[in-house]
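Quick question about two entries, pasted in order.
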Amino acid sequence: MSLFAIMPPVEFEQQYPQLHTEVCEKLGLGFVPNIFRCMALVNEPLALSSWQMVKQNLCAGNLPRMVKELLFSFVAYKRRCQYCYIAHHALAIHHGFSEGHVKALFDDIESAEPPILGAVLKFADLATEPHFVDPDSAYKDMQALGLSQSETVEVLGMVSCALYMVNIADGLGLPVDERFITVINQE
């Protein structure tokens, strides 16, 4: 149960038609998740700024979307945020990963294929710790596997976005959207 009220989907669509359309299109599942509907109801500026950050870091850039979804899900997994873990696990599946592949990666990032995926997840693993130790070697590992400096900073931005949203979701005490669970169960 949410600690705060969540705006009903129809009310959100009526009150924020342009934002509704954009979130549905950018996330690709045809609905606005609880996190944005809750924030819109209790703190509209936070909802709008949070969406802009998610849109810029998750939905734009050079890195493949499914890698970013997996990265977001991994950060949530590490931080034990059930809401974001399930949401971005479902979005990773929607964008091309299989359920088995996601679980295998999280259980053993050392054997990730392609290797660049393992390097990105190792970076996220380091970045979720209270003290980010030796980011230089993590950047070098990603660059040695072909990521540009710009793309390595894009990974950093994605991890930072995920950490921010994990804190918001946990702080709001949100229930997981049933539609995310449906995506995972259909896999």
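Here is the second entry:
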Amino acid sequence: MSEVLRNYFKLPNDDKTSPAMKLAMVPKTSELLWGTQRRTGTRAIFPIVRLRNVHVFPGIPQLCEKAFDQIEDLLFSKEGNRFFSHKIFLNIDELPIASTVETIAQKYKDVATIGSYPKINHSYYKTKLTIDSTDKDAAESVLGDLTTALKGFVLFCFGEIC
């Protein structure tokens, strides 16, 4: 990483104090992912840093978007890793339904995730639930279980008729 930064910023080899060199400070156990520039087919100028299952992207939105595009093939295979998502909007606060949601989340813990997000002082809904899975049938089963268990509180499901 130091060499990449020295070349990019045209720094002398012995310059270890330049503010630009702070970008080279990554854990030794991290891995550098080099994407491909779609327009030219050449290697990306800067790598994305991966430490186990954490990917570090640039903080500048335009560079972050470019980085996602450049390493998309490294992160997501063409055959799999498609995500199936649902959103459920409820007219009840989060706490009264928390145990019901947790029970369903535990039932599907190996195949789906459920997120619960309270919305304070909103004129239409009080809680939004999200369902994410790489298995379409599992996502639909979770959706079915939640809408059945929370019947009477469901306002609508994003992309689905409940």
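Reply: Residues 49 and 56 are 5 Å apart (CA to CA). DSSP finds four helices and seven strands in the chain. Hope that helps.
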